[in-house]
Amino acid sequence: MEKYIEKFLRYLEIEKNYSGNTTLNYKLDLFDFARFLSGTELDKIDYLTLRKYLAVLREKNFGTRTINRRLSSLRSFFKFLIRDGYLKNNPILMLSSPRAERHLPSFMTEEEVGKLIESAFAKDEKDERGLRDRAILETFYSTGIRISELVSLNADDLDFIGGIVKVMGKGKKERIVPIGDTAISALRKYLDKRKKQSVVIFLNKNGSRITSRGVRGIVEKYIKLAGIKEGVSAHTFRHSFATHLLNRGADLRTVQELLGHANLSTTQVYTHLTTERLKNVYDKAHPRA
Asked: Which of 125, 179, 191, 217 has the most CB atoms less than 10 A away?
């Protein structure tokens, strides 16, 4: 089983051009399935085997979202095996995914975002770390990019004059995102005062590219300092970015492009968060509101 998984992972990297993070998730899912099989031959896997695996995942109290991701990995894997002739019949075709729970993403109010960003400030012009942290928070809120996209930024990805950022998103798909003057100003201050010259935008204390974990730690630090409500994380900036745009009249397709969502349905979850704007429009427009 393991050799087929390795073949599949090479296919994802070379032919599908998937990112390292995506490939790693497939690897973890598939090797977990291989451990469950405990030596069962590939052609012996059937619908009943998969039902038993599904039952094991439920016994471990995995959420519906996690289970569906595992099944999605298996579907892609079996499709590859059929395509390359390693398997004749696809055992997962008859297996249905559990209905996904619909969780609305958390977001901050505009006031909370302002309070959080203002909590990061430089004590003086030599406070490189404070300047960096402020630039990170401003960039998050101004662009709505993912953590992985932020830590990957290099100097040639930024166009300060044009006010745009080139982002490498999921599936190594490139997109252009606007960036506001406030974030540009924060980035300029940080880059001008930074001691080490590097093509990498955000550096850690050792002068290397900051990691996603490092950025999460920075955001958590300022969440505590600002006294923001629980449930807020670095990714909440992205949710807040989308929600505030929709609240102020942006159309859904524009927000979809800015976020880099492949499907509009992924972006539509944010429409559930904009009830305040809908109520305001109703109150102004309806004759008996």
From this structure: 179
pTM: 0.65
Is 132 annotated as catalytic? no
Catalytic residue among 69, 75, 129, 170: 170
103 in active site: no
d(CA 266, CA 269): 6
- The string of pLDDT tens digits covering residues 241-285 is 999 998 888 888 999 999 988 888 778 777 766 665 667 777 888
130: number of Cβ within 10 Å: 17
Task: Check if the beta carbon of residue 237 is closer than 8 Å to that of residue 140.
Answer: yes
75 is catalytic: no
Look up tokens 């798909």; give the residue: 173
- Catalytic residue from among 79, 193, 235, 277: 235
**198 confidence band (pLDDT: 50, 70, 90):** very high
Q: Tell me whether residue 170 is one of the annotated catalytic residues.
A: yes
- State CA 102 to chain mean position distance: 17
| Burial class, 52, CB count within 10 angstroms (exposed 0-12 / middle 13-18 / buried 19+) | exposed
Residue 200 in 3-state DSSP? strand
> To which residue do tokens 């929709």 refer?
246
H or E element that contains 177: strand 174-178
What is the C-alpha to C-alpha distance for residues 102 and 2, in angstroms, rounded to an integer? Answer: 34
The DSSP letter of residue 210 is P
pLDDT in tens, 202-253: 999 999 999 999 999 999 999 999 998 777 888 899 999 999 998 888 888 9
